[in-house]
Amino acid sequence: MENKKTEICPICKGSGQRLVPIVLKTSHEIIMIEQVCITCKGTGKV
């Protein structure tokens, strides 16, 4: 069993959230994969 440490989301600064990778896509290409928490999903809104 993994012991995940508490992470702080770079978007909403919420702590204790599980960070999940998201892929930002444009019509041409995939830009990047970044870790955002499942609470704000990268929007900054909780």
TrEMBL record:
Stored InterPro entries: HSP_DnaJ_Cys-rich_dom_sf
Gene3D superfamilies associated with the record: Heat shock protein DnaJ, cysteine-rich domain
Protein name listed in UniProt: Uncharacterized protein
Organism, as annotated: marine sediment metagenome
